[in-house]
Specification:
alpha+beta; Translation Initiation Factor IF3; 2 domains; four-stranded mixed beta sheet; 35% helix
Length: 123
Amino acid sequence: MRAVFEWSKRALPALLLVAALLVACGCASVKVHTEALPPVLTLDEVLRPYHKVAVIEVHRERYGDVADLHPADYSWANVALQQEAARIGADAVIFPEVKVDAATYILYPTIEIRAKGVAIKFD
């Protein structure tokens, strides 16, 4: 019993050091997104002349039933459209469409979320 106590007394500072390093390294990989994403607009909100840059499509597949969908799944589609529009240098996204298709893969239900929009650049 005394040997275990002596071992734990010597190992405790080393374990605390390792834990502190792991915490410090884990926090060092936080990514901060500072630039604003292009907005998703309805046609009524577009007041300036524009030209079409591209048609953007994104999709995501996940396991689960349609009843398991959350508002975050739908907001993912808009954020993904905004990120793609920012990647190609567009000013906004118009005509957003979000479709949800359900299927069954063997025994597991799957949901495919597809989003489509038009990236525009203001003149």
